[in-house]
Design a protein that fits this description.
Distance between the termini: 36 Å
Strand content: 15-25%
Number of strands: 11
Order of helices and strands: HEEHEHEHEEEHEHHHHEEHEH
Largest sheet: 8 strands, antiparallel
Helix content: 25-40%
Strand order of the largest sheet: 5-2-4-3-11-8-10-9
Low-confidence stretches: 1-32
Length: 385
């Protein structure tokens, strides 16, 4: 029987987490677009706790920079399961886990642990067919997605600086949910150190060696405009997430010269500076040309094809993580308050983006990331009661 078809018993939970601790698991995750603010804490420094409650869920813009280890779990609810009570239970468990008072942590300090919860389109439609998050993610080219890896009712994004925490916390949350959910797929991912790109921003490198996620809604004004949902009240303070797991053809990309690799992205590999010049944080001058009339940033370069102004959409907060299994690649997560920000961008890329031939998507889904919660307003209560 497939692991995702089995319901985790309390005994299984203890066996699995105990084995993970004994093995000293070092799998993981990290987070997001180029971030303003301070650099990641020094190795060995005590991570600063991140409050689980508030207007927005943690794990999107907080902490900054994001933790280096992530585990994404996608699951379905049983046909007769009411989402409201389940989400309230998960929110309560998240509060005890992040506070370090849950015995299922097995003595591990929570540090900067965050858990971010989203619900899929099927559940959103039960609350209102016109609500943000009710639309399914369309299909795109260069996909090889098994039915089990497409869509889903529930997303658990678990991030931490301690690589031991995400699988232990996932086991605790699945134990809390019990028979009410069935796991579809999961993906561990990780990210290296952030590099300064100027203007107080930092960004990590992706598996292809380039700085990733330099452009995004970094300021509070940009986040109000492009990231957070401001209505209706049931979803205000939430956002929309797109999750896609991609395999990367690393040998074929590595066979290119550095100049050819830089033409694919439209940026210098070492510094992230656009081929049009300037600084990494200043963005590309898409109209700049050579004396003989060629664009300095090639017409099919990724930075041009995915540019928000060219596509005519808002900014997305991108969190990309390196993966090792089931194949070397990328776990891409973007947050935006309009699904069209992602779908129109990828549609525009589909026509001639030089990066796409090196990618194959093997899992994909979209989720409404629920608004934040507190004792008075349990997780999901504004949407499901």
């Amino acid at each position: 029987m497939h692991r995702a078809d089995r319901r985790p018993s309390r005994r299984t939970f203890l066996e699995v987490t105990g084995a993970l601790m004994a093995a000293g698991l070092t799998a993981g995750c990290t987070s997001d677009s180029a971030r303003p603010g301070r650099h990641a804490p020094a190795r060995g420094a005590t991570p600063v706790p991140v409050p689980a409650t508030g207007r927005h869920q943690a794990g999107i813009t907080l902490p900054q920079p994001a933790q280096p280890h992530l585990l994404a779990v996608v699951a379905d609810l049983g046909a007769a399961v009411a989402p409201g009570p389940l989400l309230a239970d998960l929110g309560q468990a998240i509060s005890t886990l992040t506070a370090g008072t849950d015995r299922r942590l097995l003595g591990l300090p929570p540090g900067d642990l965050t858990v971010t919860v989203g619900v899929g389109p099927r559940l959103v439609r039960t609350a209102g067919a016109s609500l943000p998050g009710a639309a399914d993610l369309p299909r795109f080219s260069r996909e090889r997605i098994a039915p089990r890896a497409r869509g889903g009712d529930l997303l658990l994004q678990i991030c931490a600086s301690d690589a031991l925490l995400p699988p232990v916390v996932a086991a605790a949350l699945l134990d809390q949910a019990g028979d009410r959910i069935r796991e579809r797929w999961r993906q561990s991912a990780h990210r290296g150190a952030h590099v300064s790109v100027g203007n107080g921003l930092t960004a990590p490198r992706n598996p292809l060696g380039f700085l990733d996620g330099i452009v995004g809604p970094h300021t509070a004004a940009e986040q109000r405009r492009d990231l957070w949902l401001d209505g209706p009240p049931a979803v205000a303070g939430g956002t929309l997430a797109v999750v896609r797991r991609m395999e990367l053809d690393l040998p074929r990309f590595a066979a290119l010269s550095v100049a050819e690799q830089e033409a694919v992205f439209g940026r210098r590999r070492t510094s992230g500076v656009p081929l049009s010049g300037g600084t990494a944080a200043s963005g590309p001058a898409l109209g700049a040309k050579t004396p003989d009339g060629r664009y300095l940033v090639p017409a099919d370069a990724h930075v041009r094809r995915a540019h928000a102004t060219v596509v005519g959409v808002g900014l997305m907060l991108r969190r990309s993580y390196s993966t090792d299994e089931p194949a070397p690649g990328l776990l891409f997560i973007s947050f935006q308050n309009d699904l069209r920000t992602f779908t129109a961008t990828l549609t525009h890329m589909d026509t001639s983006d030089a990066l796409l031939p090196f990618t194959t998507t093997t899992a994909g889904a979209t989720f409404l990331i629920l608004p934040g919660f507190d004792r008075r307003h349990p997780l999901g209560s504004r949407l499901f009661g």
